[in-house]
């Protein structure tokens, strides 16, 4: 039995919710903006990993240096603790998301791998156990455990991190009228660098403002007040410091707002930016602007998206491929 699982790209923070809000993305053109992981029996009896896709050349050459190997070891360890011993597998990663993009690239690989492995071994882990493992694995890459990418990538929708013992996240209502223009310029910003540039302490005024914006944003989503929600999408925690890492961000923000975007922010740690629009014609204008002015090389891309409410999904085994 072979299993193939797709995990969507995500926006961490959503501007107003540093480390505690995240949303999964789904391009309106039907393309897959996320990684796919296949799992099959290992013919050789040893762990095997191959990769293909647009950004596969950015991955480490040694399979055991790839996060998918850690996903396999993590599942294997958890099952051994339950008294179940599983053998080696053959995995293939379709690496469709760029590394260090602010689109939850590592989260997408981790979520797809853990979900695929769990299915392959008969679904022994429940959703909560899978999500905790995903957070631990993400923490190995970013340096600290946080769920604002893995949770929406896995569960779908807009997620608020609760991090309770019995419940790690909660699904928030998604504004159905919003389009999310997402543009990756083609350069890399490391999560570690983006975190190190933030101040160690914030003023009382900034903390109060952040709390007001976040509380009103969540309230507005539940009230169905899209206008209030988008007005609250201001980042006082990360964007004022991180925007210097994103060439052209400020000029793009001003241009997108003039075109009619309702809010513009940094996706996760960047350099991807997102723009919220409630009119498809405005979204298309913003997308065209970003494709022309924000992308810096052939690795860059821009998509008009909706919120992906489904999260992980089984897909047909892809045949692209020169597996390498």
Key structural traits:
alpha+beta, five-stranded mixed sheet, globular, eight-stranded antiparallel sheet, Ribosomal Protein S5, domain 2, 13 strands, Alpha-Beta Plaits, 324 residues, 10 helices
User: Termini distance?
Assistant: 22 Å
Label the overall shape: globular
- Order of SSEs: EEEEEHEHHHEEEHHHHHEEHEE
Helix content: 25-40%
The CATH architecture assignment of the largest domain turns out to be 2-Layer Sandwich
Oligomerization category of the chains in this entry:
single chain
Description:
- Belongs to the GHMP kinase family. Homoserine kinase subfamily.
- It is an enzyme of class 2 (transferase).
- ATP binds at residues 98-108.
- This protein is α+β, with helices and mostly antiparallel strands and 324 residues long.
- The protein has two domains: 3-173 and 309-314, Ribosomal Protein S5, domain 2 (2-Layer Sandwich), CATH 3.30.230; 179-304, Alpha-Beta Plaits.
- The protein is 35% helix and 21% strand.
- The protein has ten helices and 13 strands.
- It has helices at residues 67-81, 105-120, 127-142, 150-155, 191-196, 204-223, 226-231, 239-242, 249-259, 280-293; strands at 3-8, 10-12, 21-27, 34-41, 48-52, 89-94, 158-161, 169-172, 179-184, 263-266, 273-277, 301-307, 313-314.
- The strands form two sheets. Strands 2, 3, 7, 8, 9, 10, 11 and 12 form an eight-stranded antiparallel beta sheet that branches. Strands 5-6-4-1-13 form a five-stranded mixed beta sheet, covered by helices on one side.
- Strand 2 (10-12) and strand 3 form a beta hairpin.
- It is globular, with a radius of gyration of 19 Å.
């Amino acid at each position: 039995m072979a299993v193939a699982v797709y995990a969507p790209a995500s926006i961490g923070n959503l501007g107003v919710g540093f480390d505690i809000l995240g949303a999964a993305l789904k391009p309106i053109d039907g393309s897959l903006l996320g990684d796919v992981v296949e799992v099959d029996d290992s013919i050789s009896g040893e762990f095997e990993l191959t990769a293909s896709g647009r950004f596969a050349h950015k991955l480490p050459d040694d399979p055991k240096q790839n996060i998918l190997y850690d996903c396999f070891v993590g599942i294997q360890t958890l099952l051994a603790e339950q008294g179940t011993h599983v053998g080696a597998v053959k995995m293939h990663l379709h690496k469709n998301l760029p590394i260090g993009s602010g689109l939850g690239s590592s989260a997408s690989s981790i979520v797809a791998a853990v979900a695929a492995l769990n299915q392959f071994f008969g679904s022994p882990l429940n959703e909560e156990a899978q999500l905790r493992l995903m957070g631990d694995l993400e923490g190995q890459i970013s340096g600290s455990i946080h769920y604002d990418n893995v949770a929406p990538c896995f569960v779908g929708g807009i997620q608020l991190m609760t991090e309770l013992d019995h419940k790690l996240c909660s699904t928030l209502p998604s504004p159905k009228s919003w389009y999310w223009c997402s543009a990756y310029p083609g350069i890399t910003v490391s999560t570690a660098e983006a975190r190190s540039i933030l101040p160690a302490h914030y003023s009382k005024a900034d903390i109060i403002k952040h709390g007001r914006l976040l509380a009103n944003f969540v309230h507005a989503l539940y009230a169905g007040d899209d206008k209030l929600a988008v007005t609250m999408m201001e980042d006082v925690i990360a964007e004022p410091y991180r925007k210097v890492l994103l060439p052209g961000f400020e000029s793009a923000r001003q241009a997108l707002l003039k075109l009619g975007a309702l809010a513009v922010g940094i996706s996760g740690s960047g350099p991807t930016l997102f723009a919220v629009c409630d009119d498809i014609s405005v979204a298309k204008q913003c997308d065209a602007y970003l494709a022309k002015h924000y992308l810096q090389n052939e690795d860059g891309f821009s998509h008009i998206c909706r919120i992906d409410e489904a999260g992980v999904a089984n897909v047909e085994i892809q045949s692209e491929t020169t597996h390498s």
